[in-house]
Design a protein that fits this description.
This protein has helices at about 10-40, 75-80, 125, 145-155, 165-175, 235-255, 260-275, 280, 290-295, 300-315, 340-365, 430-440; strands spanning about 55-65, 110, 115-120, 135-140, 185, 210, 320-325, 370-375, 380-385, 390-395, 400-405, 410-415, 415, 425, 430, 450, 455. It has about 475 residues and is an alpha/beta fold. It folds into two domains: about 55-225 and about 290-470, 3-Layer(aba) Sandwich (Alkaline Phosphatase, subunit A); about 230-275. The strands form five sheets. Strands 1, 4, 5, 6, 7, 8, 11, 12 and 15 form a nine-stranded mixed beta sheet that branches. A two-stranded antiparallel sheet has the order 2-3. Helix 10 (about 300-315) runs parallel beside helix 11.
Length: about 475
Amino acid sequence: MDNTPFQPLSRRSLLQRSAGGFGYLALQALLAKETLQAVPENPLAPKLLKFPARAKRVVFLFMKGGPSHVDTFDPKPLLTRDDGKPYPFEQPRVQFAATGKLLKSPWSFKQYGESGLPVSELFPNVARHVDDLCVLRSLHGTNPAHGGACLKLHTGSDTQVRPSMGSWLLYGLGTENENLPGFLTICPTFAHGGVNNWGAAFLPAYCQGTPIGNASIPSDKALVQHIVNSQTGSVAQRKQLNFVAKLNHEHLSLSGPDLALEGRINSFELAYRMQSTMPEAQDLSGESEATKRLYGMDQPITENFGRQCLMARRFLERGVRFVQVTHSDGEVQWDQHGNLFKGHTKNALEVDKPIAGFLEDLKQRGLLEDTLVIWGGEFGRTPTAQGSDGRDHNPNGFTMWMAGGGVKKGFAYGSTDDYGYFAQEDKVHVHDLHATILHLLGLDHEKLTHRYAGRDFRLTDVSGHVVKDILA
């Protein structure tokens, strides 16, 4: 033990002994300033939350066209009993098309798991994971047309161009990997809202979703193009970007804030960083054959969507905040106004095994607990027949399900009427769905706002309530 008596320092001695460090502090500040002038601060850096989050990331499995809830996850015994009879209640005043009498489901339902939740025989593989699902049977929206309903589901508005759900999440949370976009949409459709379904609108440009491929090409062709620069090396690119950034910042110092220019600066920087990360993230060759089989990539009917789901898992585990996976062939997909049996059978075969494999893979890797998985389309279908074997659009009552990310497991919430036409008990509006998603990620939907054109905007507009009964 050192017995040297303590010698207090005078202020003069303290300054003499520590003054050498002041120069280093000044130099550090100057170097930091010079670096910031060339390379702007990353606006996608993770942000502090107002309250603890149950989920860190979201994947939206979007079934474009509107799957029928009464044929998938919302069984209606009375619909079967009264097949061919008139619908006994008043139908909506505004309908997309005329429909006739009640049409029973051509598929049977069975109870699965410890929860005993019923699932149609269309989804035998997803049914094995029913104890992880939180099934919302009382969704309702406002628009019976695909375009308006898709925009409502993705942006909260069916009448105006507003920021998409993924853009709001990125704006509020940032990303966990600055070398990848924080919001990716895999094989999106250009129809029915198109780019507005993943656009940032008046939010900063860095909140824009980044599409990988589109619905009209197979997923093995869905790659970020030109990700490797074969002509200019990394060092030379860095010098070019620093020079361009310096010119742009000089322009900003004269012109004042310019969101478009700032967005381009950030996009240049992100594109540069992506070169070191995106090629590996897109490369599925390192995945085992067992994993590929789990996603159905060994079968022609499931290969395409299976690859999309596997890509989503790889992006999620690398810190991408929001990933959307769209099931669409660019045309009708789940939109069976006729040929219900043939169409829904084909569609379900394409997605059932990949979705089940995706859930199993997330669970095995410990990702499901803090990843919110959402499944559904822009609306449901009518219990009444269109023609002899089809169903029309139905935004008045439909089903979506969630898994992971802080929602109850093996749980069904809400209900439609006895035939499945209208949300009836514990109704969940699209704004309520959005409010709940934000809440699970640690965001207050009423406080996540952006001021534009003289007013504050938010994803839930002026309504929306968190559905607390589905929270685990």
